[in-house]
């Protein structure tokens, strides 16, 4: 009996160290492994104190770094860190298509280089793998441009370290045992696959290439770049299935509809381009593959919207859910959200995503609060996130999501429903 008592005390101490206090005052008792999901920092190195509608200043970023360090150096550090894109602050588009010529990249490069270097420091605190998926703001050439510029330079030159290079820090260049890089066929396009822990392959897509708005300056057309990536994606899923691996898919821009754009009267505004054709679009190919390999896929992780949202992907006939996609909220409060990031818990054996804790603060970062997915969505502890969401009606999902959508900064400013269900774009 004494050993039971000691175990209970240790569990309470770990929960206290993490600050895992949900909004209702309950303390989760979750000793399962987890990873950190972080996105959309949008750092403005010239700003200090900021408010809603602005990008991350030094006060908020310092508070975020302190909280992240507390998590990473705790008694139970994360298995890996996932960053799903957008490093620098937004900038005014003074050139066609928001292109940034080389002589006008200083501020943008300073912002990106600072965040990349400090993400590197977090990963190196405990030698934890850090996997990076590029965002639309992460190109040297400007917003929604190809990852490589006309000189074939990429953002990674701003934080270069040949012995431990981006995009997957603290992983071996070839696989024998985890953590390791599985495939990196196009380094200047930033899509790749890595195994951060045994049995889990993380496939990181450059969904900017797949996006409705994309400006290539690297000499490779939008159509060709997207087709190459989708062909590679199919081979990665097949290889994972052959090796009996579980798969997490990470990206910046999620598939499906843009609920905000629809609310602005822009019609059916799709996140991804209708390429290569309406009937055989990249979205439809993606949904075909997620249906085919649904037994291997544990979930899809993304950023871009800055909100704490989710999506449910359906089979081609719109009959049943094949996968769920979970967003990390933005650190920036630019979209009038509270700044936040997630701890995502998974089952050690099956790798299924079981729960998450969202830490959040205010633009002035006076204190950190948290809430738990299973509490907000009324999920039994034994259910995976997928099991929970597949049994809920759209109304139930939307009601629960709207409670946390702005990361506890009030109700959404628009109808979020169109962004939840992801069907083919035919």
UniProtKB/TrEMBL annotation:
Gene3D superfamilies: 3.60.21.10
SUPFAM superfamilies: Metallo-dependent phosphatases
InterPro entries xref list: Calcineurin-like_PHP, Metallo-depent_PP-like
Keywords (A to Z) from UniProt: Glycoprotein, Hydrolase, Signal
Pfam families documented for this protein: Metallophos
Residue ranges constituting the Calcineurin-like phosphoesterase domain according to the UniProt record: 35-307
Protein name from the UniProt record: Metallophosphoesterase
Species in which this protein is naturally found: Shewanella surugensis
Lineage of the species this protein comes from: Bacteria, Pseudomonadati, Pseudomonadota, Gammaproteobacteria, Alteromonadales
């Amino acid at each position: 009996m004494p050993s039971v008592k000691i175990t209970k005390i240790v569990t309470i101490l770990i929960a206290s160290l993490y600050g895992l206090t949900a909004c209702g005052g309950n303390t989760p008792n979750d000793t399962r492994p987890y990873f950190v999901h972080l996105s959309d920092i949008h750092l403005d190195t010239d700003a200090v104190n900021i408010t809603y509608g602005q990008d991350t200043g030094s006060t908020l970023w310092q508070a975020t770094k302190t909280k992240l360090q507390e998590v990473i150096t705790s008694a139970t550090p994360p298995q890996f860190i996932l960053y799903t894109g957008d490093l620098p602050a937004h900038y005014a588009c003074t050139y066609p298509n928001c292109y940034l010529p080389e002589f006008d990249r200083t501020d943008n490069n300073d912002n990106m280089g600072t965040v990349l270097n400090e993400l590197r420091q977090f990963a190196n605190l405990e030698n934890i793998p850090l996997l990076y998926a590029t965002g639309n703001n992460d190109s040297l050439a400007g917003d929604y441009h190809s990852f490589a510029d006309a000189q074939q330079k990429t953002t990674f030159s701003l934080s270069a370290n040949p012995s431990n290079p981006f995009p997957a820090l603290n992983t071996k260049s070839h696989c024998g045992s985890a953590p390791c890089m599985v495939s990196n066929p196009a380094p200047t396009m930033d899509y790749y696959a890595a195994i951060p822990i045994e049995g889990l392959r993380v496939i990181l897509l450059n969904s900017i290439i797949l996006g409705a708005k994309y400006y290539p300056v690297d000499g490779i057309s939008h159509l060709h770049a997207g087709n190459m990536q989708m062909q590679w994606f199919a081979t990665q899923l097949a290889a994972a299935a052959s090796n009996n691996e579980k798969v997490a898919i990470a990206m910046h821009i999620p598939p499906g509809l843009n609920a905000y754009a629809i609310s602005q009267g822009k019609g059916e505004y799709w996140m991804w381009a209708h390429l290569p054709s309406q009937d055989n679009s990249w979205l439809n190919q993606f949904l075909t593959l997620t249906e085919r390999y649904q037994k291997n896929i544990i979930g899809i992780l993304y950023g871009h919207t800055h909100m704490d949202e989710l999506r449910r992907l359906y089979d081609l006939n719109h009959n049943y859910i094949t996968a769920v996609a979970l967003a990390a909220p933005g650190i920036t409060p630019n979209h009038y959200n509270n700044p936040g990031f997630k701890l995502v818990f998974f089952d050690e054996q099956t790798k299924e995503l079981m729960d998450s804790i969202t830490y959040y603060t205010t633009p002035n970062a006076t204190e950190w609060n948290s809430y738990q997915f299973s509490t907000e969505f009324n999920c039994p502890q034994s259910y995976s996130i997928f099991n929970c969401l597949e049994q809920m009606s759209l109304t139930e999902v939307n009601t629960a999501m709207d409670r946390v959508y702005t990361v506890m900064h009030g109700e959404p400013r628009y109808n979020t429903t169109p962004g939840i269900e992801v069907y083919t774009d035919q």
